[in-house]
Write a structure and sequence with these properties.
alpha+beta; 3-stranded antiparallel sheet; 3 strands; 47% helix
């Protein structure tokens, strides 16, 4: 992946003639099959939950002290 920036705006998604088209921030544009889009959507949802949990855990006081000791 060449664009390592973390984007905070969601991608636009549309179906057109049997393809799912994704247009994202930073010029990210691609299309995929509906099956690939469904699997990707499931993976994105799963990892979004994990990512939010990681972000939440970093905010806990015990982890703040642990991070300072590193």
């Amino acid at each position: 992946m060449t664009d390592s920036k973390v984007h905070d705006e969601p991608s636009d998604v549309a179906a057109d003639e049997g393809e799912v088209i994704v247009e994202g921030p930073g010029g990210i544009n691609y299309s995929m099959t509906p099956e690939a889009a469904e699997t990707t959507a499931e993976r994105l949802t799963d990892e979004a939950v994990v990512g939010r949990g990681q972000r939440h855990l970093r905010r806990l006081p015990a982890n703040e002290a642990k991070d300072r000791d590193r």
